[in-house]
Structure formats: structure tokens, C-alpha cells
Design brief:
With 137 residues, the protein is α+β, with helices and mostly antiparallel strands. It has two domains: 1-30; 37-134, Sandwich (Gamma-B Crystallin, domain 1). The chain has two helices and eight strands. The protein has helices spanning 2-18, 37-47, and strands at 53-56, 65-68, 75-76, 87-90, 94-99, 102-107, 112-113, 128-130. The strands form two sheets. The protein has a four-stranded antiparallel β-sheet with strand order 2-1-4-7, covered by helices on one side. A hairpin with a 2-residue loop joins strand 5 (94-99) and strand 6 (102-107). It is globular and about 45 Å long.
Length: 137
């Protein structure tokens, strides 16, 4: 059975290369399901450098991220993240702001959410980020 499946995979890969399509190698091992919490946190840590807060429009720290540093001071969220932060990972302290109604959320080093927008969480409201000392909550 394995030889037969491997032959099919190799045949598809060769056909794909001839057509100019690059195919990722396939594993014959069974997948273990969705990523664990530890795997997701490693994904975030690998993408988010020290001294910044990273924001993603996708859950589980996936896709492109935007980084903010306290030395940047106040910043409006980029348009694609305005009211649309699905996950974040904090390697710095900061303050998330929603202007209407005026709400502030203090964030400490080590705070994170892999699903910050679901169920009306603050990721669906965030307008800006600033230094923790400027958080007037």
C-alpha cells in the first residue's frame, strides 16, 4: 500500500513539475490534528521580536503581522487591523485603545490571545496602541 501511494505522490509531483507547478513534499504520516497551544505560542514567538507587540488579522498568529514598539509612541492601527485584530502576542507592555466608546486595555509582557476578535472580544474594537504610561483606563 505504501509503495502504491508513494508512486502516486511521485507521479503527481513529476507531472506538477512538468506543468511548472511546485508542489510541497507530502508526508505519508497521519497528521496529529490542529496545532497545540504550545505550538501556537512558538509560532508567535518565532515571528515576534523582543520589545514589540505583534498583531495579526488572522487567528492563531498566522499570516502577516504588524509590529509596534513603545518607542513608536501612539499609533493608529493599520487599516487592515482597525477593529480586526484576530491575534496578538506581547513582548512589550502597551495599551490598546478603542475610541468609541473610549476604552483602554493594559497589556503586559507575556500577554497574548490566539483568538482576540471572536465573540466580540477587544480585537474587534481596537483602534490604536500606545505606551502603557499613556493608558488612561
Amino acid at each position: 500500500m505504501i509503495k502504491r501511494n508513494l508512486g502516486i505522490v511521485l507521479g503527481v509531483a513529476i507531472a506538477g513539475n512538468i506543468m511548472g507547478v511546485v508542489l510541497a513534499p507530502m508526508s505519508l504520516a497521519a497528521t496529529s490534528g490542529p496545532p497545540t497551544e504550545a505550538q501556537l505560542l512558538k509560532r508567535a514567538a518565532d515571528q515576534c521580536e523582543a520589545g514589540v507587540i505583534c498583531f495579526w488579522a488572522n487567528r492563531d498568529f498566522s499570516g502577516n503581522h504588524w509590529s509596534w514598539s513603545p518607542r513608536n509612541g501612539y499609533r493608529d492601527m493599520p487599516p487592515y487591523l482597525h477593529d480586526n485584530v484576530a491575534s496578538f502576542y506581547a513582548n512589550a507592555a502597551g495599551c490598546f485603545i478603542d475610541w468609541e466608546p473610549r476604552l483602554y486595555v493594559r497589556v503586559a509582557v507575556g500577554d497574548y490571545s490566539k483568538s482576540y476578535k471572536a465573540g466580540g472580544k477587544f480585537g474587534s474594537r481596537i483602534d490604536a496602541v500606545t505606551k502603557l504610561g499613556d493608558c488612561h483606563a
